[in-house]
């Protein structure tokens, strides 16, 4: 049986950790396995050895599958995936699941969940019970067993060490744990609570500490007079995580709801007794022999928690008994022999989660899964009209997702295609959002046929098996493209779309077939990005004339050139502010030293003012940000299209940009300030670990030229306002998303000629 496993494998999530154990188990069972790796986060939580082993599976060519297992959030299941049978593997934490999860789960041939509570939750939400199968999460037991790793050094820890590893949300019960800790122990007790904390909602360690201190005080405690609590926030690979369990005596998880609670199972595999709420996932494997199961009361999910995660209306979860937790903490501290006995039993009980054992159960089950009727939920489509499936992030907060949303809406407006959507990473669909409402039927209803699959995600997926002809939208900023992309176009892509002529030309120069490379530009929404929009209030930190930069602080964005030019052109005596809107913090961009440079510039009393804004900005506020500025400066070295430039121009903002590269498709001497730029070659042929067809090529402006352009914009304001007005008229007339859709439809017609169903 040929098996394709789709899911994350390298990031710090529980899904990735479980995925590594699953694919290792399947490989050790000699399964004919291929992997479609989903990159959920740029941070990796694997050792170099693990990464090397996974590379063999990730790099192997994917073949048409007999069974396709999708291990991800249920809303991201792809019901169009190749495979005689399609299995979804997921988990949810409360007593019912969101509607979009249930809808996608019902489109799988079978849904595998890790605990009985999960099966009940999906059944309660409308998924047929005979579609549901309970399979616990696998563990690589050899990585956690006692002695597998030396105890992690935690200098502040002493006495009986309790460990909790959790996302800082109310579902994880951190508030219950802290309240019980305050009640269980006095300041001089020889105990330590170690909290390995992170935040899926973007909270920093400082934010978590502030919330912890505020909660302690609100509960009547004194942060300076209580039993010790240590917060750990570093990313740990598998070996270090095993060392963390080895460094503790008891694991505590007073959670309100779990899909499985992997850390509890891992702690058991390390021979540690556990304290856990006897509800949802842990109820299947935590009893008095391995620790202290906590009684609970079922209650509605509160409003505060609903603000942290998309729990469905009417959802209920467990409220753990605080007094029972206090008693468990005290007993665990006072009874060392009891801890040892329970830890030994926990180690033995964890054997049921051995990765090979679970993999064998999965393989046995696959032999019995049968395809379901896939005509259920099909949409009606017009004969002779292309049916296109757009695959990529749709509801995420980053630029690729925004492009997919705009392209989808424009294609729907065109009426020239029947469109379906498969989201690969985004947040929950909010059907109450009027901008997203037209996309709801495209996600929930299934196309009865797919003539063309349009893939637009990063990193790009080149795996075979997509239905219909395959179009890949590729963005590249460094001139010559990766060699793997050239090979993929030859073997598994019918056509490549590039957002700018600069990128399309470099694709051809790199060896791609010119007849299968097309320029399909991006665009702007003229209803949102227009002159006269109410400006965003930037406060007192950004007075005077405002230059604006929008984007990640990457070297290729030229932020270093901008800072040099700004400091050369102005002093604190000038009534000017450089406004930097950083979309890299907490996102896909790796932090660089630009933030430190900004800090030094802001602290220099002789330097011009700088205002650095890092917080999340709602999509609706982007036009207002442009309206709050006087001039956009974007001195990139490499861009695939540069949407902020196009959007700023559409808002009537004058822009200062390089005279070269991607933006020259829409920014000319009558609509933009073009700074002379030279083309250079980097002394490498590798970017991001990818070998390129030739050394990277970039454009670069001179600092003196950029400074002169900024100074002229500051001194000749009416001239530049007139330039911005011409730019707005130009963009709104010729560079909208409707123009993008028209270009896409024009490419689809010859691609699908003779292949459309009647």
What features would you describe in this structure?
- The chain has 758 residues and is α/β, with parallel strands linked by helices.
- It folds into four domains: 2-138, Rossmann fold (3-Layer(aba) Sandwich), CATH 3.40.50.11930; 142-353, Rossmann fold, CATH 3.40.50; 387-523 and 741-751, 3-Layer(aba) Sandwich (Rossmann fold), CATH 3.40.50; 539-680 and 693-735, Rossmann fold, CATH 3.40.50.
- The strands form seven sheets. The protein has a six-stranded parallel beta sheet, with helices on both faces. A six-stranded parallel beta sheet has the order 9-8-7-10-11-12, with helices on both faces.
Question: Which fold name is given in CATH as the topology of the largest domain?
Answer: Rossmann fold
CATH class bucket of the largest domain: Alpha Beta
Average of pLDDT:
92
How many separate domains make up the residues?
A: 4
Separation of the first and last Cα atoms: 35 Å
Multimeric state: single chain
Broad structural category: alpha/beta
Major sheet: order of its strands?
2-1-3-4-5-6
Q: Could you give me the name of the CATH homologous superfamily of the largest domain?
A: Glycogen Phosphorylase B
Shape: globular
Reported CATH architecture of the largest domain: 3-Layer(aba) Sandwich
What is the number of E strands? Answer: 30
Q: Helix amount, in percent? A: 25-40%
Q: What are the segments in which pLDDT stays under 50 over at least 5 consecutive residues?
A: 585-591
Number of helices: 23
Percent in strands: 15-25%
Major sheet attributes: 6 strands, parallel
Tell me the radius of gyration: 28 Å
């Amino acid at each position: 049986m040929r098996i394709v496993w789709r899911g994350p494998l390298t990031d710090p999530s529980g899904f990735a950790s479980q995925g590594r154990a699953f694919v290792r188990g399947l490989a050790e069972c000699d399964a004919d396995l291929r992997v479609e790796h989903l990159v959920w986060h740029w941070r990796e939580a694997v050792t170099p050895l693990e990464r090397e082993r996974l590379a063999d599976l990730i790099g192997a060519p994917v073949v048409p599958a007999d069974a396709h297992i999708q291990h991800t959030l249920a809303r991201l299941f792809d019901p169009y995936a190749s495979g005689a049978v399609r299995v979804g593997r997921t988990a949810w934490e409360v007593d019912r699941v969101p509607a979009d999860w249930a809808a996608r789960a019902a489109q799988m041939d079978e849904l595998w969940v890790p605990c009985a509570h999960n099966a009940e939750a999906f059944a309660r939400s409308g998924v047929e019970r005979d579609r549901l199968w309970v399979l616990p999460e696998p563990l690589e037991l050899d990585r956690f067993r006692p002695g597998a790793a030396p105890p992690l050094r935690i200098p502040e820890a002493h006495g009986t060490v309790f460990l909790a590893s959790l996302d800082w949300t109310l579902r994880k019960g951190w508030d219950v744990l802290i309240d019980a800790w305050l009640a269980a122990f006095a300041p001089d007790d020889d105990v330590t609570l170690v909290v390995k904390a992170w935040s899926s909602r973007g909270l920093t360690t400082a934010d978590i500490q502030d919330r912890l201190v505020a909660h302690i005080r609100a509960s009547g405690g004194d942060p300076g007079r209580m039993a010790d609590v240590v917060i750990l926030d570093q990313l740990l690979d598998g070996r270090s995580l095993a060392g963390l369990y080895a460094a503790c005596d008891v694991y505590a998880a007073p959670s309100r709801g779990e899909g499985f609670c992997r850390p509890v199972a891992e702690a058991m595999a390390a021979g540690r007794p556990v304290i856990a709420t006897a509800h949802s996932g842990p109820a299947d494997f935590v009893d008095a022999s391995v620790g202290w199961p906590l009684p609970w009361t079922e209650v509605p999910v509160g409003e505060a928690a609903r603000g942290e995660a998309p729990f469905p209306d009417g959802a209920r979860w467990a409220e753990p008994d605080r007094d029972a937790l206090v008693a468990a903490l005290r007993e665990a501290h006072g009874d060392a022999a009891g801890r040892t006995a329970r830890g030994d039993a926990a180690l033995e009980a964890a054997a049921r989660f051995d990765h090979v054992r679970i993999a064998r159960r999965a393989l046995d089950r696959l032999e019995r899964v049968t395809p379901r009727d896939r005509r259920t939920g099909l949409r009606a489509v017009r004969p002779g009209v292309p049916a296109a499936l757009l695959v990529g992030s749709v509801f995420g907060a980053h630029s690729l997702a925004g492009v997919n949303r705009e392209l989808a809406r424009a294609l729907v407006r065109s009426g020239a295609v029947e469109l379906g959507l498969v989201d690969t990473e985004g947040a929950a669909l909010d059907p109450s959002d009027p901008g997203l409402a037209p996309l709801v039927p495209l996600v929930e209803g299934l196309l009865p046929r797919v003539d063309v699959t349009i893939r637009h995600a990063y990193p790009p997926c080149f795996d075979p098996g997509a239905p219909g002809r395959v179009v890949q939208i590729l963005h590249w900023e460094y001139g010559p493209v990766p060699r793997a992309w050239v090979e993929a176009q030859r073997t598994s892509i019918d056509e490549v779309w590039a957002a700018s002529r600069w990128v399309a030309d470099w694709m051809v120069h790199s060896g791609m077939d010119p007849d299968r490379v097309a320029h399909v530009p991006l665009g702007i929404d003229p209803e949102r990005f227009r002159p006269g929009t109410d400006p965003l209030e930037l406060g007192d930190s950004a007075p005077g004339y405002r230059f604006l930069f929008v984007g990640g602080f990457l070297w290729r964005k030229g932020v270093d050139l901008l800072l040099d030019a700004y400091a050369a052109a102005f002093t604190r005596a000038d009534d000017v502010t450089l406004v930097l809107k950083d979309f890299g913090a907490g996102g896909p961009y790796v932090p660089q030293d630009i933030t430190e440079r900004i800090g030094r510039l802001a602290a220099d009393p002789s330097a011009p003012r700088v205002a650095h804004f890092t917080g999340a900005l709602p999509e609706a506020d982007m036009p207002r940000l442009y309206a709050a500025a006087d001039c956009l400066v974007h001195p990139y070295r490499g861009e695939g299209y540069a949407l902020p430039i196009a959007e700023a121009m559409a808002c009537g903002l004058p822009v200062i940009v390089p005279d070269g590269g991607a933006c020259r498709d829409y920014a000319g001497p009558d609509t933009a300030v073009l700074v002379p730029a030279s083309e250079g070659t980097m002394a490498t042929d590798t970017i991001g670990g990818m070998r390129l067809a030739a050394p990277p090529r970039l454009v670069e402006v001179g600092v003196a030229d950029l400074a002169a352009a900024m100074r002229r914009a500051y001194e000749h304001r009416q001239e530049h306002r007139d330039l911005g007005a011409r730019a707005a008229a130009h963009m709104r007339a010729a560079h909208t998303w409707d123009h993008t859709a028209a270009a896409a439809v024009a490419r689809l017609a010859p691609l699908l000629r003779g292949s459309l169903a009647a």
